[in-house]
Amino acid sequence: MPSLVQKYNVPGPRYTSYPTVPYWNLETFSGKAWNTSLQKSFEESNEREGISLYIHLPYCESMCTFCGCHKRISKRHEVEIPYIRSVLKEWKLYCDLFSARPIIKELHLGGGTPTFFSPENLEILIRGIFRQADKAKTYEFSFEGHPNNTTKEHLQKLYDLGFRRVSYGVQDYSEKVQRAIHRIQPFDNVKKVTDWAREIGYTSVGHDLIFGLPHQRIEDVKETIIKTKELRPDRLAFYSYAHVPWLKGNGQRGFNDEDLPTAEEKRNQYEIGKDLLAQVGYYEIGMDHFALKSDSLYKAFVDGSGHRNFMGYTASKTQLMIGLGASSISDSWYSFAQNVKSLEEYTHLVDHNIIPIYRGHILTDEDLIIRRHILNLMCKLETSWEHEVEQFEDLDVVREHLKEMEIDGLVNTNNCKVSVTELGRPFIRNVCMAFDLLLHRKAPEKRVFSMTI
Fold first, then answer.
1. 99-133: buried (b, 16+ CB within 10 Å) or exposed (e) per residue?
2. Could you tell me the domains of the chain?
3. How high is the pLDDT of residue 236?
4. Cβ neighbours of residue 278 under 8 Å, at least 6 residues apart?
5. How confident is the model at residue 428 (pLDDT cuts 50, 70, 90)?
6. Looking at the predicted structure, is the pLDDT value of residue 371 above 60?
7. Could you tell me the pLDDT band of residue 226, with boundaries at 50, 70 and 90?
8. Are 356 and 346 in contact (CB under 8 A)?
9. Residue 250: predicted pLDDT
10. CA–CA separation, 2 vs 46, rounded Å?
11. CA distance 265 to 396
12. Model's pTM, two decimal places?
C-alpha cells in the first residue's frame, strides 16, 4: 500500500460533477441556454421524480481554518431576514420559469452554518419555499448543524417542518487539532445535539469526521472513532482534509504546511479509521462515506439507487437540482450553473429580477456519457460500455489508463466493464480520472485540485 499511495497521490477532482468546474466551457454557456436546459429538465422529471433543492446559508460566527466553503463571518444576526428574502425572491424567479408547481423530493440546508439562523427565521424560509411548491410523496429534508449552536428549538422546529436527517460537523475530538482548525467543540456538545435529534424523532443522524488535519495523529483518529462509537450516528462522512490554501478567501491559512500529516500518515489514518468503523458496524459507501445497515444511504448503495451531486452522496436521484443562495450550484443534468459568490452582488442581481448565475457549462453528448460512467464508479464501484450508447470516441485512451491500475490490483477489467476492487476503493478518485477525457486532453496550468490521498 505505501508504494501505491506514493504512486497515486496526485492532484485530482472529487467528482461531484463531470465536467469538473475548472473544465466548464464558459464560451458556450449563457443565461438563456441555462433557462432552456432548466425548463427541459423540469418537464421531463418534475412529475416523474420531483426535484432537489439546495439552499446555501453562508453565515458563520467564526472562521474554521480547515473549511474551503464560501462563507461570511459575522455576529450580526440582523442579516438573516434580508438574506432569506433574497433567497425566496430567487426561488420565485425560478418558479416563474416552470410550467407547474415544483414537487420537491430532496431539500438540504448547507453553508456556512445553517443554525446561525434562528429557528423562527428558518421557518420563514421553509414556509416561503413551499408557498410555491409541493412535497413529493416520499421526500427527504436535511440540514447541517453546528454542535455548538444547534438548539433543541432548531431541531424541533425543523422536524415539525418535515426534516428527518441532520448532520453535525465533528472533524476530530483532539483539543490540539481543534485549536489549530479554530473549531472548539467538546464531545459533550456533540452528544447533547445527537441525543436531542433522536429524542425528537430524527431517523438519520450523521457526523462528519476528517483525517489529515494539522497536528492530527493516528491516536487522535482512534480516539475520535471510539467516541463516535459511543454515539453511533446512522451515517458518517470520513474524508481527507482538502488543503487548498491557494483558493482565495477560503481561510486555510491558520497553520503551517509542516503541521499537516504526510500522505503516508494520512493513508494510515484512513486505513486504521476504516477498519475501526467496520468493526463497529459501519459499511463503506462509495468514497469517504459510511453507514449502518439501517440507514437509507446503505440501502441505496446496495440496490444501486444512490446518487452523487454537488450535495455529495444522496439516497435517491433527481434529474434536476436547483441551488439557491450565494455561490450555490444548480444541475439540470444537461447543464450546470453557479451563482455569484459575493453576497452584495447576489442581492443586487436578485433585487433586479435576474437569476444570479455567473458561470456554467452546457454538457456535450460526450460529457453526458462520461458523466454516467463516473457516477456509476462513484455510486456502484463499476461501469460498463457494453451498449453503443455507453461508448465514446476515446475509449481506448481510458482503457490505456486503466491498464496500470489493473496491474496494481485497483480494478478488474474485461472487454466492456471495469469494477473497483477492495484494494482500489481508497483510489476511487484516480479510477474516475481515467475516464476524465478533458483532464487528459489538457492538464491544468495551475494547481486547482486537492491531492487524491
1. eeebbbbbbbbbbbbbbbbbbebbebbbebbeeeb
2. 20-362 (3.80.30.20), 365-441 (1.10.10.920)
3. 96
4. 284
5. very high
6. yes
7. very high
8. yes
9. 47
10. 48
11. 35
12. 0.93
